[in-house]
Amino acid sequence: LSLFNELESVKAKDLKIGDMLIKGGSPGHIVILCDEVVNDKGEKLFLLFQGNTPAQSVHLVKNLENSSISPWYQLEDDAVVPVSNYTFSNAKFVRFK
Hints:
Oligomer: single chain
Number of strands: 7
Number of helices: 1
Order of helices and strands: HEEEEEEE
Number of domains: 1
């Protein structure tokens, strides 16, 4: 919750490896952007890691909504992003300074 409230938002078009998708709350959730690919048009796809609570081993998240690009995700502002055990809505992208 504190990260959601304290970190500044990042627009999807400006995402970088290490940025996070976060939903504040109790419980909230967070995934970390761990890799990206970019096509000739500049369109990006991202790999996501998560660890869950209590602290567990970090693992790669499958894209359950789009098996044609899984495990990659296409991320957009205000998108609903489902991961294996959580669905992000009303979430935001953030970055540590």
